[in-house]
From TrEMBL:
It comes from the Bacteria. It comes from Streptomyces carpaticus. This is Antitoxin. NCBIfam families: phd_fam. InterPro entries: Antitoxin_Phd/YefM (IPR006442), YefM-like_sf (IPR036165). Antitoxin component of a type II toxin-antitoxin (TA) system. Belongs to the phD/YefM antitoxin family.
Amino acid sequence: MTDSFSIREARAQFATLIHRAEAGDATVITRNGVPVAALVPVHEHQALEDAADELLAREAEAHRRDDTVGMSELLADLFAERNGGGTAAG
């Protein structure tokens, strides 16, 4: 079970929470009862980063053969959207 601590509690017990993370336990940090952060063992953090990298690599591979656009066309479309004009091409 993941415990939660307010920011004030976490600050006061920081060393204990670090020891808990070293032991494999995660801790959720809350502000006004709302979860805002998590202190997790570094191996769990690394596993999440590795999974995100793999997901991005799969997504990129799935679109590797898609048609591409030049930077100038991309920027023109982005600025047109920002200014409420739709796409520059259309």
